[in-house]
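Supplementary Methods. Inverse-folding protocol.

Structures were first reduced to a discrete structure-token string of length 177. This string, shown here, constituted the complete conditioning input.
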């Protein structure tokens, strides 16, 4: 298993539509293990393949609380089968937009079909935080970030703040001691 570098927005690699996986093989299983390693190290609760520069419809999630045993979910080729009419607002963040958060409204519940690490097609019903997280990660597979759900004004504000932060980081690294 390996920790991979996470791509930070703005970056064209976060805007692509990822390709479906034909068959889950050892390469895809290793990718999911690496995504989990990277996510746990960050730390985060979800990570998609495009965020590490791999244009495949693969994502991982773990909402287990710190100190609890891990409950990793490995998801390939997810598809929304059903969404509730009821929307719910959750505070979201993203490892590709470090330190940025916003309230995002999404369907409160959803049913998602996907392929598991053993190539078995499964369906899960999700609600609450898991629903928001899964929809957020699925958005990444279609090149959408959580800020794309906001008004242009709010989105630009967050992206400006992020680029300011990145510039400040760059200066800190380059400045002599
Ligand atoms: Ni994200």
């Amino acid at each position: 298993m390996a920790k991979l570098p996470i791509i930070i927005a703005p970056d064209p690699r976060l805007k692509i539509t990822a390709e479906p996986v034909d068959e889950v093989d050892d390469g895809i299983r290793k990718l999911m293990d690496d995504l989990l390693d990277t996510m746990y190290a960050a730390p985060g609760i979800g990570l998609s393949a495009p965020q590490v520069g791999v244009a495949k419809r693969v994502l991982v999630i773990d909402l287990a609380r710190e100190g609890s045993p891990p409950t990793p979910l490995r998801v390939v080729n997810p598809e929304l089968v059903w969404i509730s009419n009821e929307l719910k607002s959750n505070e979201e963040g993203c490892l590709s937009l470090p330190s940025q958060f916003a309230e995002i409204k999404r369907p409160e519940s959803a049913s998602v079909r996907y392929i598991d690490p053993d190539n078995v097609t499964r369906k899960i019903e999700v609600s609450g935080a898991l629903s928001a997280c899964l929809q957020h990660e699925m958005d990444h597979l279609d090149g959408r970030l959580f800020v794309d759900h906001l008004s242009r004004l709010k989105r630009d504000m967050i992206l400006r703040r992020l680029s300011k932060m990145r510039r400040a980081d760059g200066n800190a690294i380059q400045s002599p001691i």
